[in-house]
Amino acid sequence: MSMILLIEQVLNGLQFGVMLFLMAAGLTLIFGVMGLINLAHGSLYMVGAFAAAAVAGWTGSFALALVAALAAAAAAGALIELLVIRRLYDRDHLDQVLATFALILIFSEGTRWLFGSFPLFLDVPAALAGPIMLPGGILYPLYRLVIIGVGLLVAAGVFWLIAKTRIGIQIRAGEADREMIAALGIDISRLYTMVFALGAALAGLAGALVGAIQSVQVGMGEPVLILAFVVIVIGGIGSIKGALVGSILVGLTDTLGGVLLPPLFGTFMQASSATSVGSAVASMSIYILMVGVLLFKPSGLFGGK
Amino acid sequence: DGGKVKVGMITTLSGGGAGLGIDVRDGFVLAAKGNENLELVIEDDQRKPDVAVQLTDKLIQSEKVDVLTGIIWSNLAMAVVPAATAQGKFYLSPNAGPSALAGKGCSPLYFNVAWQNDAFYEAGGLWASENGIEKVFLMAPNYPAGTDGMTGFKRTFKGEVVGEVYTKLGQTDYAAEIAQIRASDADTVYFFLPGGMGISFMKQFAGSGVDKNVMGPAFSFDQGILGAIGDAALGVKNTSHWSKDIDNAANKKFVADFQAEYGRLPSLYAAQGYDTALLLQSAMGKADVADAAAFQAALEEADFASVRGDFAFAPNHHPIQDIYMREVIKEGDVVTNKIVGVASSDHQDVYGADCKM
Amino acid sequence: MSLLELKGITASYGPSQALFGVDLALEAGEVCALMGRNGMGKSTTIKVICRMLKQSAGTVQFNGRDLGPLPSYKAAQAGLGLVPEGRRCFGPLTVYENLIAAARPGAWDFERVCALFPRLGERVDQIAASLSGGEQQMLAIGRALMTNPTLLMLDEATEGLAPVVRQEIWAAVATLKRESGLALLVVDKSLAELRHVADRAVILERGTSVWSGRMDVLDAAVADQYLGV
Amino acid sequence: MTRETLLNIVLFAILPATALVAFALDEPFIITLATKAAILALAGVGLNIALGLGGLVSLGHAAFFGLGGYAMGILASHAQSYTPLMETPFLIEGTKSMLVIWGVAIVTSALAALAIGALSLRTTGVYFIMITLAFGQMLYYFAISWPAYGGEDGLSIYVRNEFPGLNTLDPIQFFAIAFGILAIVLFGAGRLAKARFGLALSAARQNAERVETVGLTPFRLRLVAFVISGAVTGLAGALFADLNRFVSPTMFSWHTSGEIMVFVILGGVGRLFGPVAGAALYILLEHTLGGLSEFWHVYLGLLLLLVVLFARGGLIGTIAGREVAHD
Amino acid sequence: MTDPLLKLSHLNKSFGALKATDDVSLTLMPGEIHALIGPNGAGKSTLIKQIAGGLRSDSGTVEFAGRDVTALGTVPRARAGLGRTFQISSLAMEYTVLQNTVLGALGHDGGVMRFFRPVMKDRRLVDRGMAALERVGLTDQAAKRTADLSHGQRRLLEVAVALTLEPKVFLMDEPMAGLGASGSKRLTGFLDALRVQAPILLVEHDMDAVFALADRISVLVYGRVIATGTADEIKRDPTVREAYLGAEDAA
Ligand SMILES: Nc1ncnc2c1ncn2[C@@H]1O[C@H](COP(=O)(O)OP(=O)(O)OP(=O)(O)O)[C@@H](O)[C@H]1O
Ligand SMILES: Nc1ncnc2c1ncn2[C@@H]1O[C@H](COP(=O)(O)OP(=O)(O)OP(=O)(O)O)[C@@H](O)[C@H]1O
Ligand SMILES: [Mg+2]
Ligand SMILES: [Mg+2]
């Protein structure tokens, strides 16, 4: 493989990593910081994408579509929190698992009910379509660069919110001892609703942005859910920096694994089985990465405890 | 002459792949409309093999159906077909034709009304060889349907395969693969990525500015999917045994009726469901399902007006039919397919030789 | 009108009843000692006051306001400060974050708390969970002070503190009472210390207030009967 | 007799009663459903040993379920095609004997649980959830892309395996086998929970530090629990494969892990009969709602949601109340 | 002279720049109560953790009953006979009070890999657990869930669990904390009698108890032992008074 291709693949890996962070950002808030196991995160991602596709279809405006995605996902998030999650804070984590599992069913089939069984159309806006030339002669889709930009912005924003603001401190205090922070005069319930809605909005934003270059369909949130959990766990729960580093590690591993492993296996195996075995190992690579990281750092790269 | 027939349809009606199942069902129901001798029981397999097997048992044991049909996916077919035929029931496949069931695992009671899995790929390879395509880059998910498909293509393709990539099943980001495609000296990308994977790939491929021909089997460019890909799919060549512009009376009626009934364009799955019901009814007119041998013979005749044109069964009960080459075009606002030629006429699968029945 | 007034409070944890009738009154600027042996209901009474636990009967009035329908955070905003039993510092947060998490403006601020507990000042960036037991206790007190309450409730706030620090805290309590007019409800095991600072006392026995009155009239016989000293 | 004991007796009787009524009414499919419930309950009982007693939230139990299934699939497919499984260094033949298959399924999944557990148990909490998920996913992707045994298409076994003295193809007889195993395992799991091991294991879930200071090693307790748990779930996998006469990588997918976990939570975590109640209810819902509408998952979701919100501690918790500490 | 049962030599432990344990050497003789006092954050609990095995020392050795246990973890040290109570109660909260002590008895007995016989029907273990509860006065609470105990009652249960282990040495981190005056008095009497069974290394801020019980007192300040002596010697030591006792000796 040529050097320039390798560099391009590394760039792809980084790009995919940042995209993963964007998809995981909402979950970082809800799960990483608030400590809530929200399996329905992928559904909120899907809600964002569908809202965007619907509005883009009506109005033809991508900007309006993004607004719709944010609004719809935030509203869905707030609703979930008020109706369901709120009653589960003082319960076992497992109850949250079951409840949000139920929410996945409702959201997925509800969406299909509303929008039908076929994938929707959502495309990148014309202004951002097409590739641009990077230094070094690499043609790179502009839209992907935009995603990197937004992803990094979101990372910085979330980091600032959690680490530097009093709201962030209060949320983390609430995660440590809800009853106590309330007894000190903080309306933690309202705060949690807001943060949950914010996390949902981020998921929706990611759904819309990423949906434009992927397929907007029922069930699109599921792989995202698992990837997002993998990313957060590798980085260490509660750490925004960890989530970003985790995303990039996963992005690089997945991309480079897929690119490099099949030829690598080809050096000592028959060509035909090498592609298949190599690809099989490549599909496992992020899980292998996660196991590796957790064996050496049982609470993730930047996990406190 | 035939009495009543009870048909059990197990298909995917919920979850991600529901669109295909719904089309098969709608096509079937459309063709069977008004036939009082045909009683239909429909069940949702949720795309889970174990559920499909259990539903098979249910339909056979509790509902006492005579004929089963409906399965969309190869892996579900592998589970259901043996279970159904082992219990002495007919199975008519409206989609999915795994090689195992065409060869060694064939059964007198099993009829495939769609295609053997390799058909579109083999036809694609033939067409590519005959139309000046020299260097292809192959891509498919790393699972049997994917690897088998690429093997099918290579079986008939005479040019050079310059790259071959098997991606993770369910992958949604193809930046790395597109970079590999760009770097290769292929003139054509031939790929099979079902459902959302294909949509993602096509959109990203279009945005990457890579300028190469794209080809594939119809599955990634069927009507239900084209709407989601949009203009990015224009110009793509894909092989199919059906297209809405096939010029015969049966097809014209089907397309018109389907649109009138459901308010959308039919897909190839709908066409297959429709043909399945036509085949079944043709046999019902000739034999009583209780007389298995006679009913089997009636089915083997395939005496119905297929929307695909000429249709016959090979000895292994798999179709002999033309496979067309289609191109994605735009008709007004609608992105759709147009036939550009026949890729393989009277196509027949290669596994029949292993079929002993 | 009293600052805090509890009348006929009963309360249960699920099926098991812990309070069977607690009466308590506290005037502004006063220090009241809540006493009783282990398991008699002191902490439960405090939980009822700050709405961590809802009473099943009786009323809690604070500043002329019925706390009954209020959620815990509103009661706190009304001016209740709590140093809970067992400290309950926010483990993963730093000392600084613990202190400012729920701070409200007023006489007590970060500098003043650090002046009261210099050990905390030296450890602003340490994670609370890794503090020594006594340091955590100081943090819990500091955290409550930072909310600038009108009534501060100390539930075993000197547990695990070194004698010198304990003396400092009692001195601080005396100062608080004298200078800022803060009212305090104190649970502590040391009768000797309480005698110094408390104006009045309430004694609980099996979930009922069995004795209440001015501290100076609490005689040795009563103390021996209910507190075993 | 406590309410829970009474409830347990009812739950225990529910499956055979259903099967017998269905047998009398000649509804073999209902028997099949009861069998499915019994087998999935068995998988849940396995998970519950790790999850309920040990607090080990494993989202990778599909690994053991799938290994059990493939133990059946591989052995039976070789027997079916009369090809030996292995010729060197020594000959291993396929088999159609359930007893042998169960043995292999138990041993394989126990060994896998030993390896996975030994690595995973270094982590705790959500990290444990995710690392077990990772192992499950690795096996899933391996199974999908490994062509020898069908890859994603799976393996069909045309005839159910044999059990001495019984006709396993007869639904009611196969039910008897599955339910018999469930009964034995329930009895064993009940004893285990109350035995020395159970006391220590459950204490390690509540407070590991406490267990260490009395001189016991939480890691060892958990590993043993994980192995037992994996073995039981593996056995359930072998039975499940036999029920369907079919195995496929879906058995390895995280949905399967999730579903087994849903049975446990739905019924009541840590309750002996929780998985039985959970699996029975889930399957009942799945098969009654399925006919209602194309969008029946919405109803299923709503019902599950109602159960979580209003039935604390799962079904058993709601009906029987807070757990009574055992005597 | 008899040999010490527990002997610490030159133990060190740092957290980053902070020296929590600074060259500590201590002994515990059979039959004695050796109190360890010192300001908050002086490193007492840290030292207890180092002895019990929960925390690795940077350097130095711990000898127990003539054997070097420095390299061992918590579990083998507990099995060897080091019984510890925690400063902040550490119990199995869902269990009944009795189950907690039975767990202790089980730890002492070993043989945990038994899967069949109900443990709560094991007379030997249950009797031992009940006996421990009786000694601390929690018999009435035996069937209560530990989570339902009041704070002070949990403190007593801590001690009871340590008793079931029949350790050769007790390491007690502030057992009096949270006990009311009467409770402290009772526990003081109890510990006094306990020392014949096994010597106690006692960390405590309750000076009444310390002065009443301790044969020897060591004072730890900033991780260093600054003084060791009898109660009277310590009371008179001006540095100790300034650093720790304050006006306490008035008592
Ligand atoms: N969370 C709880 N659930 C059930 N019962 C409880 C709970 N907390 C306390 N109790 C019970 O309520 C009674 C009163 O407890 P409380 O904590 O108020 O006592 P206390 O006077 O503060 O004792 P201590 O001095 O030991 O802290 C006790 O009998 C205790 O067992
Ligand atoms: N994991 C840690 N990381 C950083 N500092 C720590 C850690 N653990 C303890 N410390 C610090 O080490 C010092 C000694 O703590 P230790 O708990 O031993 O004190 P102590 O003497 O028991 O105090 P107290 O009487 O208040 O319980 C304290 O200043 C504490 O903040
Ligand atoms: Mg208390
Ligand atoms: Mg300490």
UniProtKB/TrEMBL annotation, chain A:
Keyword Cell membrane belongs to the record: yes
Superkingdom per UniProt: Bacteria
Record-annotated membrane-spanning stretches: 16-37, 44-60, 66-85, 97-122, 142-163, 191-213, 219-237, 244-265, 277-296
CDD domains: TM_PBP1_LivH_like
UniProt-listed InterPro entries: ABC_transp_permease, BCAA_transport_permease
Signal sequence region: none
Sorted UniProt keywords: Amino-acid transport, Cell membrane, Membrane, Transmembrane, Transmembrane helix, Transport
Compartment annotation: Cell membrane
GO MF: transmembrane transporter activity
Family: Belongs to the binding-protein-dependent transport system permease family. LivHM subfamily.
Descriptive protein name: Amino acid/amide ABC transporter membrane protein 1, HAAT family
Species the sequence originates in: Sulfitobacter marinus
Automatic annotation (TrEMBL), chain C:
Pfam families on file: ABC_tran
Keyword DNA repair among UniProt keywords: no
GO biological process entries: L-amino acid transport
ABC transporter domain mapped to chain residues: 4-229
GO molecular function: ATP binding; ATP hydrolysis activity; branched-chain amino acid transmembrane transporter activity
Keywords (A to Z) from UniProt: Amino-acid transport, ATP-binding, Nucleotide-binding, Transport
Classification via InterPro entries: AAA+_ATPase, ABC_transporter-like_ATP-bd, ABC_transporter-like_CS, BCAA_Transport_ATP-bd_LivF, P-loop_NTPase
Family statement: Belongs to the ABC transporter superfamily.
Name listed for the protein in its UniProt record: Amino acid/amide ABC transporter ATP-binding protein 2, HAAT family
Native species: Sulfitobacter marinus
Source lineage: Bacteria, Pseudomonadati, Pseudomonadota, Alphaproteobacteria, Rhodobacterales
TrEMBL record, chain D:
Keyword Transmembrane helix attached: yes
Localization annotation: Cell membrane
Parts of the chain that traverse the membrane: 29-51, 58-79, 99-119, 126-149, 172-193, 219-240, 260-285, 297-320
Its membrane topology: Multi-pass membrane protein
One GO MF term: branched-chain amino acid transmembrane transporter activity
Alphabetic keyword roster: Cell membrane, Membrane, Transmembrane, Transmembrane helix
Main localization, broad class: membrane
Pfam families reported for this sequence: BPD_transp_2
KW Transmembrane helix (keyword) present: yes
CDD domains per UniProt: TM_PBP1_LivM_like (cd06581)
Record-linked InterPro entries: ABC_transp_permease, LivM-like
A single Gene Ontology CC term: plasma membrane
PANTHER family registered for this protein in UniProt: ABC TRANSPORTER ATP-BINDING PROTEIN, HIGH-AFFINITY BRANCHED-CHAIN AMINO ACID TRANSPORT SYSTEM PERMEASE
The protein, known as: Amino acid/amide ABC transporter membrane protein 2, HAAT family
Lineage per the UniProt record: Bacteria, Pseudomonadati, Pseudomonadota, Alphaproteobacteria, Rhodobacterales
From TrEMBL, chain E:
Domain ABC transporter: residue ranges: 6-247
Native species: Sulfitobacter marinus
Database matches in PROSITE patterns: ABC_TRANSPORTER_1, ABC_TRANSPORTER_2
Pfam families: ABC_tran, BCA_ABC_TP_C
Keywords carried by this UniProt record: ATP-binding, Nucleotide-binding, Transport
Protein name: Amino acid/amide ABC transporter ATP-binding protein 1, HAAT family
PANTHER family: ABC TRANSPORTER ATP-BINDING PROTEIN (PTHR45772:SF2), CONSERVED COMPONENT OF ABC TRANSPORTER FOR NATURAL AMINO ACIDS-RELATED (PTHR45772)
One of the record's GO molecular function terms: ATP hydrolysis activity
GO cellular-component term (any): plasma membrane
